[in-house]
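User: As part of a screening pipeline, I want to sanity-check one entry by hand. Below is the sequence and the SMILES for copper (II) ion. Please return the complex as C-alpha cells so I can compare it with the automated output.
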Amino acid sequence: MKASPIAILTGALIATGAFVVARYGNTAAPVDWSSAQHVEIRMIEYEFVPNQLRFRRGLPYQLHLVNAGKEGHDFTAPDFFTSVQVKNADALNGSKTSVFLQPEQTTDIYFIAQDAGLFALRCADHDWAGMTATIVID
Ligand SMILES: [Cu+2]
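Assistant: Here is the complex for your manual check:
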C-alpha cells in the first residue's frame, strides 16, 4: 500500500521527536479535520459490521456510526473513549462511554487515536445476543 502524505508526515513527526506535540494537538497545533480518515461501522440485529475497527495513534478519524437495524443500538466502548481525544464529545452520552442510535439514525464521532491497545466494543442492550466487537489502536 502506498504511504499517504499523512502517514509520511506522522512518521516525520515521530522521527523528529515532535510526536508529543502532535499527540496533544488540541493545545499545541490545530488539527486538520478535513483530512480525517473516514471509517464506517453499521449496527444491525445483532452485530457490528465490521466486527473489528483498527486505528493508528496520532491520526484523526471520522467514525461514521449507522444504525441500519430496526431496534435502537448502543456503541458502548468506555475504555476506547478514554484512549482517544474526541472532538465532538457532546455526541456521546453523559458519562462519555457510549453513543446510542435510534433505528436509521447516523452519528459521526471525530477523534484522534491516542493510546495503543485492544478495546472491547459492545451494544449495552444486546451484548447478550453476541452483539460485540473489538477496536484496535496501533
Ligand atoms: Cu443493540
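Points to compare against the pipeline: The longest helix spans residues 5-15. The radius of gyration is 16 Å.
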